[in-house]
From TrEMBL:
<feature type="domain" description="EAL">
    <location>
        <begin position="23"/>
        <end position="280"/>
    </location>
</feature>
<protein>
    <submittedName>
        <fullName>Diguanylate cyclase (GGDEF)-like protein</fullName>
    </submittedName>
</protein>
């Protein structure tokens, strides 16, 4: 049996012990994994529901160990955040994204949205580094979207001020800010008010469970989120769209953009190029 993740384990629990050993091993390997080339950035297309065009793509990190084992990001990102490796890994992701963006933006005007951890934003030089990276790659700020979650504000007041200043600096250069997993946190509305934001990503739980069942109560939640987003002048992206019904209902509700297995799974940048070439063929 597992304990709830607290540190106060009074009795020796072999399962907890094994998990901690496994975690410590992953943390140790993570530090070499960047140089060893074990990470790869995959891209999931984000579709304009009105036209069916690919409007953007989300960068999603993939880690394959030398023995071929794939470690899912939900498993290693939290460990990287605890152990500090997220700074190195996050910087690598941004470099890779800027490299891939050169072609994606110049050939197809496809923007890339990238997940940025709260730890990265607490570095007061984060925005400056990112802007110089874009500059070096000759990619305009407009081509990049930074995705953050509310954890950026679950922090000290001083940190919150740093985070807000970073986001403002990025926006002044055309980089857009998206709030990820909207609707799942404790203070979604509060941080939407506090932070400079352009895009709202409605969490997949709203799409998946609620729309297919088709209950009026369920639809009311989605409609409320879309209305809020619109009245704030934001663009909405629906996540985890898995069925045709979901896509149609979202479109009927005037949701702008959507991503999910129904359209395409995340894949290597080459897959995205293949898809984009197919789309642009007359
Ligand atoms: P997220 O940012 O909410 O990303 C969306 C997740 O939903 C991705 O999982 C994606 O593969 C998955 N997904 C896409 N379409 C569907 C669908 O139709 N149905 C369902 N059920 N899921 C779908 P993934 O790639 O395993 O990433 C998990 C999480 O890891 C991400 O959640 C994000 O929080 C984090 N993550 C991934 N890459 C990075 C990164 O480069 N940096 C940071 N800081 N976090 C990352
Ligand atoms: Ca995301
Ligand atoms: Ca999300
Ligand atoms: Ca998530």
């Amino acid at each position: 049996a597992r304990t709830g993740g607290g540190d106060q384990v009074a009795v020796f629990d072999p399962a907890v012990h094994a998990e901690r050993l496994a975690n410590a091993e992953l943390v140790a390997q993570m530090h070499h994994a960047v140089e060893a080339g074990e990470f790869e950035v995959h891209y999931q297309p984000i579709i304009d529901l009105a036209t069916g065009d690919v409007a953007a793509a989300e960068a999603l990190l993939r880690w394959t160990r030398p023995d071929g084992t794939r470690i899912p990001p939900d498993r290693f990102i939290p460990l990287a955040e605890q152990g500090g490796a997220i700074t190195t890994i996050g910087a690598w992701v941004l470099r890779q994204v800027c490299t891939d963006l050169r072609r994606l933006w110049s050939e197809h005007q496809v923007a890339v949205t990238v997940n940025v951890s709260a730890h990265q934003l607490r570095d007061p030089l984060f925005a400056a580094h990112l802007l110089s990276l874009l500059d070096t790659s000759a990619v305009p700020g407009r081509a990049l979207i930074v995705e953050i979650t509310e954890t950026v504000l679950v922090t000290s007041v001083a940190d919150a001020a740093t985070v807000t200043a970073q986001l403002q600096q990025l926006r002044e250069h055309g980089v857009r800010i998206a709030i990820d997993d909207f609707g799942t946190g404790y203070s979604s509305l509060a941080y939407l008010r506090e932070l400079p934001v352009d895009i709202l990503k409605m969490d997949g739980s709203f799409t998946a469970h609620q729309i297919d069942n088709g209950g009026t109560r369920e639809i009311a939640f989605i409609r409320a989120i879309l209305d809020l987003s619109r009245s704030l002048g934001l663009v909405t992206i629906a996540e985890a769209v898995e069925t045709d019904t979901q896509a149609h209902r979202l479109r009927a509700l005037d949701c702008n953009l959507a991503q999910g297995y129904h359209f395409a799974k995340p894949g290597p940048v080459a897959d995205l190029h293949t898809l984009l070439h197919k789309h642009s063929r007359p």
